Amino acid sequence: MTAFADVSFFPRQAKPLTSYRKYWAQRFGTAPFLPMSREEMQRLGWDSCDIIIVTGDAYVDHPSFGMAVIGRMLEDQGFRVGIIAQPDWQSAEPFKALGKPNLFYGVTAGTMDSMINRHTADRKIRSDDAYTAGGQAGRRPDRAALVYAQRCREAFKDVPIVMGGIEGSLRRIAHYDYWSDKVRRSIVIDAKCDLLLYGNAERAIVEIAHRLAAREPIEQITDVRGTAFLRRSGDPTAEGWLEIDSTSVDAPGRVDAHVNPYLMISDQARAQGATCAREDEAEAVASAENGKVKPLVFVPNPALAGKLKAPPRERSVIRLPSYEQVKSDAVLYAHANRVLHLETNPGNARALVQAHGEGVTARDVWITAPPIPLTTAEMDHVFDLPYAREPHPVYADENGSHDHGTKIPAWEMIRFSVNIMRGCFGGCTFCSITEHEGRIIQSRSEDSVIREIEAIRDKVKGFTGTISDLGGPTANMYRIGCKSPEIEAACRKPSCVYPGICSNLNTDHSSLIQMYRRARSLKGIKKILIGSGLRYDLAVQSPEYVKELVTHHVGGYLKIAPEHTEGGPLSKMMKPGIGSYDKFKQMFDKYSAEAGKKQYLIPYFIAAHPGTSDEDMMNLAVWLKKNGFRADQVQTFYPSPMATATAMYHTNRNPLRKVTRSSESVDIVRGDKRRRLHKAFLRYHDANNWPLLREALKAMGRADLIGNGKHHLIPTFQPLADGNYQSARRKNSTVATPGAKPNSPVRGRLLTQHTGLPPRAGTKAKR
C-alpha cells in the first residue's frame, strides 16, 4: 500500500466513501444499466432522476469509462442516476429527455478532451471517434463540456451544474488554447457551471451529492477539495483566508543562478549558500538504526521569533496573476503555470485564486487543494461496483449483439483489460496524466484485481482466455511510492524519476510480480499481456520483474516510450536519457533469448516537442536507421491545456526552472513546414518525405547523409508513380526496375528491408 493510503498525513481527514448514510432512494435497488430513457426509468419504478450525467461518450457500463464510475458510485450512495449520452447539442430539448434532475446535472466531455478527440495535432478534423458506436465522427461538439453546460442551463435554469472530466479539469485556470492560438479564460467562467471537479472525483462528487440532498445551497459548497468555483471580488465568504501573492512563492523577473529544479526548496537555498526556514519545508533524515525515518524537524527562523505566525496551510490561498495579465505577458503565464504545478501535492498544496475581469465585473476563480487520494479499500470499492461491463443495450441490434455498425472501438480495445492503479509520478511535461490523476499512485488490492479477471472470464461475451492488459496509466507503478509518508507529504518535486530515480522512492516490484503469477494461474486464463506504457527506467531496478514480464507477458512486441534520443528535448520532456532504454533493451533481449522467444521492442517517439532542434530530429533519424526501426505512424507534439510543455510552446520559456525576464529560451517548433520536417525525420524511410529531407539536410550542411549506401539516411533516387525510380541528381537518368540485383543502390525492396523488425512494424500514435 502506498504511503498516502493513510490519510492521517493530510491536513484534513478524508471521510471514507463508504461511511455516508445512504440516500432514501436506495430502496429502488441496483439498475442493470443506468437509464437513458423515460421508459427505462418507468421499468425501474422511478418518477424522476436525482442526478443526470451528460457525457460526450457513448455509454459503456465499465470501470474504464468515467460516466459509469461516477454513475455507479452515486447509485451506490442511494441516488437515482440517469445518463444522457452524446446528445444533439443544437438545442436544449435533448437535455430534457429524462426530465428535471432533483439535485444536479453532472457534465463531462467524455474520457478524452473533445478538442483532441476531434482534431489532429495539425488541426485537421478526425474522420472517426473511438468512443462512439461504429466509430462515427461528429457526435460531440468542439469544447463539449462548455456547450453541454450551457444547454443544461437552458433546459432548467435553476438546476445546479457540476462539471467534471479531463476537459474541464485541464481548463480550470486561464490556459493557452492551441486550436485558437490564444489564452482562454477558465472554463468555470465560460461554462457558467456552479462547481468544477478536477482530477479523480469520486470523493468530491459523493460529498457534494449528499450536501445538496441535505438542501445545502451549492453556492455555499466552497470547502470541498478538488473543486473550482467563482466568487465575486471582495466576497465576504472569502474572509479568514490569508492571501499570498504568487510572486512571493516563485518570483518572476529576478535573475538567479540556475540550481537543480528538482531539489527541495531548502536544498535549493543551500545550493546558493543560503538557508531556508519556510514553514512548509522540512528535512527528514534516515536513521542509521533499523533504516527508520526520524520525525520531521521544523527549523524556526530566529529573525522572525515572536513577530510572525505561520498561517495554517489549509487557510492559505495563493493569488496567481490575473487572466488579463497572463494573456498579455508570456513570462507571467509561464510563472503561473509553474506555481500551479508546485501546488499539486495533496499533502502540502494550497488553494489558488485567479482574477478574471476588472472593476465591478471582476470575478475570482477559486481552486481548492487537490483531492485526497483513495485508499486501497476505497479503490476496491469503486472497481467492485456492479458494472454490466458492456455497452448499453441501445447500441445493440435486435439480436442484442454489437455488430460492425454498432461496435464502440474504445470498448472493444479494453473489454478484456483490467486497470490495477491510478496516477503517475513520472511528471512528463507533455502528458496530462499527472495533472489529472495526480502523482500519488492509488492501487487496488490483489484480491480485487483477481475478482475482476474472474468476472471477465465468467461473464464477458467473446472471452477466449487472454487478458489484453493488466495495468493502468503505467504498467509497473503498482504499489510503488515514497518510502516515507512524511517526506511524500512534504515533497514538491515534479517527478520522482527525473533527472534520476529519487533515493526515497521504493522501487520494489514484488507485489506486481506476485499478482502476475497469481493471475495467470487462474483456471481458464491462457495468457495475460501487458499493454500499458512501461516505465522502463523504473523496471530495470528490478531484473526479476523484467524477466517475469519478458518470459510470460509479452505477445511478440512490447511498447515503450523513450520519446527521443537527444538530451535537449529529453530535458524539456523530463524523460531519461537513451542510455536507460539501452539498458532495458539488453535485459529484454537477454531474457527473451533465455525463454527461447523472438520478441521486439516498439519504441514511441515524439516529433516537434518544445526544445527540439532540427539537428536533434536528424540525430534521432540516424539512430532509428542504425537500429533498424521504421515508424509506421508518429506522434507530433500536441499542446494540451495546462501541460508544462504547452506553457513552453506558448511562452518560449522553461517553467521547470524559475521563470525570469532573461531566463532560458526554449526552441519551439512552429509552422507547418518545420513541423512536417520533424515528422519527416521520424519517417525517413517514406519516399514521400525524401525531397523535403534532401532540402533540409543540404541546408544543415549534412548532405553526407544523402546517398545510396547503408550508412546514408536517404537515397539520391526518387520513386515514380509506376514504381520505378528517378535519380534526384539527374532527372533524365536511367531508371532501375523493382527487380534490380540485391546489391544495387536502387533496390526495389528498399522500403520493406528491415534489420530489427518484420516489415512495416513500427511505432503507433501515442496519447
What do you see in this structure?
The chain is globular, with a radius of gyration of 27 Å. A 10-stranded mixed β-sheet has the order 3-1-4-5-8-9-13-12-11-10, sandwiched between helices. Among the domains are: 3-226, Response regulator (Rossmann fold, 3-Layer(aba) Sandwich), CATH 3.40.50; 242-367, no CATH class; 554-568 and 589-605 and 613-639 and 675-767, no CATH class. It is α/β, with parallel strands linked by helices and 767 residues long. It is built from 25 helices and 25 strands.
What is the CATH homologous superfamily assignment of the domain at 3-226?
Response regulator
Tally the beta strands.
25
Low-confidence stretches: 1-11, 254-266, 268-298, 728-767
Main β sheet profile: 10 strands, mixed
CATH topology of the domain at 3-226: Rossmann fold
Termini, distance in Å? 28 Å
Strand adjacency order, main sheet:
3-1-4-5-8-9-13-12-11-10
CATH class of the domain at 3-226: Alpha Beta
Proportion of β residues? 5-15%
- Helical content stands at 25-40%
Briefly note the structural class of the backbone.
alpha/beta
Number of helices, counting only DSSP H or I runs of 4 residues or more: 25
CATH architect. name of the domain at 3-226: 3-Layer(aba) Sandwich
Gross morphology: globular
In round numbers, the mean pLDDT is: 86
Our Rg estimate from Cα atoms comes to: 27 Å
Spell out the blueprint of helices and strands.
Layout: H1 38-43, E1 51-55, E2 60-61, H2 66-76, E3 81-85, E4 104-108, H3 114-118, H4 144-155, E5 161-163, H5 165-169, E6 175-177, E7 182-184, H6 187-191, E8 195-197, H7 202-213, E9 227-232, E10 242-245, H8 246-249, H9 265-271, E11 316-319, H10 323-328, H11 330-342, E12 351-356, E13 363-367, H12 376-383, E14 390-391, H13 409-414, E15 417-419, E16 421-422, H14 433-437, E17 442-443, H15 446-459, E18 466-467, E19 469-471, H16 485-490, H17 510-520, E20 527-528, H18 536-539, H19 543-552, E21 557-563, H20 567-573, H21 578-594, E22 600-607, H22 614-627, E23 635-636, H23 644-651, H24 672-682, H25 690-699, E24 717-719, E25 725-727
Parallel strand pairs: 1-3, 1-4, 4-5, 5-8, 10-11, 11-12, 15-19, 18-20, 21-22, 22-23
Antiparallel strand pairs: 2-14, 6-7, 8-9, 9-13, 12-13, 16-17, 24-25
Helix pairs in contact: 2-7, 11-23, 15-17, 17-19, 19-21, 22-24
